[in-house]
Amino acid sequence: MEKTAVFPGSFDPFTVGHESIVRRALSMFDKIYISIGYNSEKKGFFPLDVRLKWIRKVFSDEPKIFVESFSGLTVDYCRKIGALYILRGLRTSSDFEFERAIAQLNKSMYPEVESVFLLTIPEHTPINSTIVREVIRHGGDASKFVPAAIDLSSYIKKR
Ligand code: ADP
Q: What predicted TM-score, i.e. pTM, was given to this entire model?
C-alpha cells in the first residue's frame, strides 16, 4: 500500500527548516502532501495563493510532492486524501509538548493515523516563520531563511 504523509502547517512563509524536513522525509513516503491549513477569518501575512505558489516552485522537480490548502481538521483532511501519516518537525522541548498534545488528540480522533516527527538539524533550530515575518516587517533581508526558489524581494520594505 502506498504510504502517504501530510506535512500540515501555515508556512507563512515556508522556510529552509520546513524544506529540510520535507526533503529528509522523502525516502520514507511514496507521497508527501505539503498542505496549508487556512482559516477564512484569519488572514496570513502572505496571501494563501502566494504561499502555495512558492512551495510548488521549491519542489517543482519532485513528483512525490503535492501542494494544497485545506480548512478544518487535519485528520478530516487526511481521511479525505487517504493519508495515514502526519509529518511534523521538532526544534525544541516546547515544540515537543505542543506537538505531543496535537498528535495525541489527532490519534484519538483518527486511530489509524500516525504522527511522525523529525528533529530539525541544529542550524535550523532558531528559524521560524514568525522571525522571517518580523525581519521583513522591519525592512531586513530574510532571504537566507527561505529556500532559494522563494523571492521575497517584492515584500521587503524600502528603507
Ligand atoms: P504551524 O502553524 O502548524 O505550527 P508552521 O508552518 O509554523 O505551522 O510549521 C509547520 C511544521 O514545521 C511544524 O511541525 C513545525 O514544528 C515545523 N517547523 C517549523 N520551523 C521549523 C524548522 N526551522 N525546522 C524544522 N521544523 C520546523
A: 0.95
Q: Is residue 137 part of a domain?
A: no
The number of folded domains in the chain is 1
Note whether 34 and 66 are within 8 A (CB). yes
Q: Is 138 assigned a catalytic role? A: no
Q: Which strand (E) or helix (H) includes residue 119?
A: strand 114-119
One-letter amino acid for residue 50 of the chain:
V
Question: What percent of the chain shows pLDDT beyond 70?
Answer: 98
In-domain check, residue 148:
no
151 is a domain residue: no
Which residues have any ligand 1 atom within 6 Å of their CB?
Answer: 9-11, 15, 17-18, 21, 88-89, 91, 95, 120, 124, 127-129
Expressed in angstroms and rounded, the spacing between residue 138 Cα and the centre of ligand 1 is 22
